[in-house]
Each structure stands twice: as structure tokens, then as C-alpha cells.
Give the backbone structure.
Amino acid sequence: MQSLRRIWGMVYRHLALYRHSWPRLVEIAYWPTLELLIWGFTSTYIAGAHGAPRAVAAGGFIGGVLLWEIMLRGQLGVTMSFLEEIWSRNLGHLFVSPLRPGELLGALLAVSAGRTLLGLLPATIIAYFLYSYDIFAPGPVMLLFFFNLLVMGWWVALGIVALLFRYGAGAEALAWTIAFGVTPLACVYYPLAALPGWLQPVAQALPAAHIFEGLRTALTGHGMDWRQLTLALGLNAAWAAASIVIFAGEFRRARVRGALLAIGE
């Protein structure tokens, strides 16, 4: 009986954590739902594709994986570096030094860019030799795709860091869930038309949907769709500005509350 009580005590401890942390609660059903959405839309696209579209879909999968990793690695490069400061209890020490928030962000972005390039290099080489897929086949314009996806990863990361300032350690799961959760709307593996009509305007509000639409246009040999790339640049600028404002606001609130010293405790 005492053993059962002790077991229940440990179970209740975890139940209490979930009860007071909505990110942990959402995460329970998050990944199965996400996988269902991604591959459900992909299956819909492939089922309706014939001939040339099938070839584009096959090439688009590998290109989509490589390009989407730029966004994911860019986001994780910032959030993981920031979490390292939280886990090492170093955040308070950083902000009692002359270091400014903008300087910290500059360092995090630089680390993120380095991690992204280093992480994708082996995958790009493997794709070329194993699958005969050249990510640079469309030409130097691919650098614009890379840049846009990296910037998107950065502003998503800024939003996550702002949530960490507000919710503390309870929001750590968001570092892994938010960016992956955008995947169904990013149209990485299928065109925008594969989404339900009511969901398409939501996807069009994200730079990624326009980037991958442009990639598929380039893969079909129709040249570069500069309209899609321009839309991606504009949306990135707007979202980045909003993320900077949110980050600055949450940082000020955390400093006033003294949360910079308590975060991660």
C-alpha cells in the first residue's frame, strides 16, 4: 500500500506539471497530429499528380527537406544557444554585464548561421552523391531561397525567446514544437493548392509557402518566379519587425519583474 502511495505521489507530481503548463499539455497530442497533417496533404498531392508533376514531386521532396532544414536549423541555432544560457544559470550574469540585448541577439544569430551552414553541408553532399540531386541546379538564385528561410527561422526564434521570457522553463518545449508546427502550412512537400481553401490564406501569410512555390516553379523549368520571392522578402521583413517588437517588450517586462535571474529555476 505504501508503495502504491509513493507511486501515486510521483504520478501526481507530473500531473501537476501538466496542469500548470499549457505547452507541456499541448505537446502530448502535438506530434501525432502534425505528422498526420504533413503526410495527409502530401498523399493528397501525389494521388492527384501524373507524369511530369510526379517527377517534380520526387525532386521537390529532397529539395524541400534540405531547404526546410535551413529554417529549422536557423531557429534551433538561436533558441538552443539561448537555452544553454538558461540551463547554465548564466542569463542573469550576462545582463548585469555591459552586454546589451541587441548584442546578445547579434551573437545568437551569428552562431545560428554558422551552425546551419555546418549542419547542412554533409546533407547536401550526400544528396548529390547518393540521389544525384544538386541543390544549386536552379542557379545562384538558390542563395535567395537560403537567405529567406534563414531569416524566417530567426524571427520564429525571436518569438520563442520572447515566450521564454514570459513563461520561463515551462515554455522550453516550444523551442522544438513551434517551428515544426509551421511545416504543414509551409507547403514544403506539396503545392499550396493541396491545402483546403480556408487554410490557403493562412499559408500565404508565411514566407515559406511562397519560397517553396517558387522552388517548384524553378524545378519545372519555367524559370524563377520573382513575384513569389518578392512576397517572401516582404513577409519576412514584416514578421521580423513584429518579432523584434515582441522580443523587446517581453525583455523589458522580464527585467522589471526580475525574471532574468529566476528564469530556468
Observations:
- Residues 30-262 form one domain.
- The mean pLDDT is 77.
